[in-house]
Design a protein that fits this description.
eight-stranded mixed sheet, about 45% helix, globular, binds nicotinamide-adenine-dinucleotide
Length: about 280
């Protein structure tokens, strides 16, 4: 195992750092916000405790995992790393700047991976002088539990980079599936229009959120209804992904539901803000 940097300590970044560190990687967790770093590490500790209680890992694994994580507020911590996984806010301007900076600061041989849900990897790669080393490594939420990593091959991604990323995902205990670059890749091209349509059903008064989720759970065997899933993902993230599908594919077909826009504007972002389609008390 070698060293990795994870950029962004939010919902996804702390999960990605957790899994890398648990599998033996020295992990530099980087965020612009010291609060986000503190929350990220607290979440990792809580999730490790949960894994211990379930008997999935022993206490020493928890201790070693935490011991391998350092927190940083500067991208300069991305030194001597084999790979950087960027999991910052889903905003093209933020990601483009992060990749421009990483290109300067990370070792020239390092792989630069993005956990973006929808922004084309080829566009992100253009911000660097090493497009062959830029790839999508799309983890699923919650990262410690979900087996899939959608490995996204950009137009210029080198084949050895794809192969090495597959190896890294497997070494983290994940199952990689390689897809070609396109807005939303496969996962969100299929998932997000379903969530958006579920929101239209609530907006149009066809059913309550509970009703929509019951239909999909009991009738389609989904473990989680689409609106509970939207709350878990974050409604702001869902809206950002719909906008990328709209801009990149078809403006009418991928129009975000006005109710989704309204809820995001009102700060109802789902679990992370305490309210979305459901209310979360802890
Ligand atoms: N939430 C999900 O279910 C999910 C699933 C798969 C992929 N993703 C993707 O993962 C990425 C992160 O999403 P999230 O849900 O963890 O978001 P989040 O809002 O929980 O966390 C984003 C973090 O990025 C930090 N950040 C912002 N600008 C930064 C910068 N310049 N440098 C370093 N850190 C910066 C923020 O402070 C914040 O802590 C997004 O690209 C999103 O599309 C999300």
């Amino acid at each position: 195992m070698s060293k990795v940097a994870v950029v962004g300590a939010g919902t996804m970044g702390n999960g990605i750092a957790h899994v890398f560190a648990q599998h033996g990687w020295d992990t530099a967790l980087i965020d612009v916000s010291t609060d986000a770093l503190a929350r990220g590490v607290a979440t990792i500790k809580k999730n490790l405790e949960r894994q211990e209680k379930k008997g999935v890992i022993g206490h020493q694994v928890s201790v070693d995992t935490i011991g391998r994580i350092t927190t940083n507020t500067s991208l300069e911590a991305a030194q001597e790393v084999e790979i950087v996984v960027e999991a910052a806010t889903e905003d093209p301007d933020i990601k483009f700047q992060v990749f421009e900076d990483l290109d300067r600061l990370a070792p020239s041989g390092a792989i630069l991976a993005s956990n973006t849900s929808s922004i084309p990897i080829t566009e992100i790669a253009k911000q660097t002088n090493r497009p062959e080393r830029v790839i999508g490594m799309h983890f699923m939420n919650p990262v410690p539990l979900m087996p899939l990593v959608e490995v996204v091959r950009g137009k210029g991604t080198g084949e050895w980079v794809v192969e090495r990323t597959i190896e890294i995902a497997k070494a983290m205990g994940k199952t990689p599936v390689v897809v070609n670059d396109a807005p939303g890749f496969v996962s969100n091209r299929v998932l997000m229009p379903m969530i958006n349509e579920a929101i239209f059903c609530v907006q149009d008064g066809i059913a309550t959120a509970e009703g929509v989720d019951q239909v999909m759970k009991l009738g389609m065997n989904h473990p989680l209804g689409p609106l509970a899933l939207a709350d878990l993902i974050g409604l702001d993230v869902c809206l950002a992904i719909m906008k990328v599908l709209q801009d990149g594919l078809d403006r009418r077909k991928y129009r975000p539901a006005p109710l989704l826009k309204k809820m995001v504007a009102a700060g109802k972002l789902g679990r992370k803000s305490g309210q979305g389609f459901y209310v979360y008390r802890d």
